[in-house]
């Protein structure tokens, strides 16, 4: 696969996966006040949790006219993920000698985590994701019956 392979339920990152991990690990240096929590690189996509800090510390935009806090948080998330995608794309495309080729889908999935119980559930989902790869619809090696939902 593109970024890693799953061996005995564990991720084995290739060079591209290592680039993704390094960029993720560098984000707290740029976005002070945000916490980069649970993270896993799957063979063809990553999963991660970003905890936004207190509005006064984590939100760097000062748009005019004033924008509600919730809107500014979305803008910060877009900036973080935009930087993540840009830096990883440049480095991976340099490695592949494929300058300008798209690496990521245009958008991303986001979910607002509202309490500790939900956070722990999502952390567990991320931790268990490599073990579940054999059943994942994104896995081209998953059986046809799994893809159709024939259980």
As a whole number of angstroms, the C-alpha radius of gyration is: 17 Å
Q: How many helical elements?
A: 5
Portion of residues within helices: 40-55%
Q: By helix and strand content, what is the structural category?
A: alpha+beta
Low-confidence stretches: 55-64
Mean pLDDT: 83
What's the number of structural domains?
A: 1
Q: Report strand order across the widest sheet.
A: 1-2
Distance between the termini: 25 Å
Largest sheet: 2 strands, antiparallel
CATH topology: Alpha-Beta Plaits
Strands, count = 4
CATH architectural group? 2-Layer Sandwich
CATH hierarchy, class: Alpha Beta
What is the H/E order?
Answer: EEHEEHHHH
Description:
- With 151 residues, the chain is α+β, with helices and mostly antiparallel strands.
- It has one domain: Alpha-Beta Plaits (2-Layer Sandwich).
- It is built from 5 helices and 4 strands.
- The strands form 2 sheets. The protein has a two-stranded antiparallel sheet. A two-stranded antiparallel ribbon has the order 3-4.
- β1 and β2 form a beta hairpin.
- It is globular.
